[in-house]
Amino acid sequence: MPAIDWEDPFCGEGANCFRLGTDTDGNAYIAVAGKEDAPLTDTREALRALIRDIKTGKADHLL
């Protein structure tokens, strides 16, 4: 696995924490905090799109 530069954890209510990371090859990663050895991987643009969609409320139905 390439070296991943992880951001500080984002934690919601009830301590549901996840981390975002990137590598030098242009990949983006999302992992549950403490489980960084098993991340989901996609492109940075896909991660940007996911974050934009979450901010606009497109994932609110999942909550």
TrEMBL record:
Name under which the protein is recorded: DUF397 domain-containing protein
Annotated organism of origin: Streptomyces solicavernae
Organism placement in taxonomy: Bacteria, Bacillati, Actinomycetota, Actinomycetes, Kitasatosporales
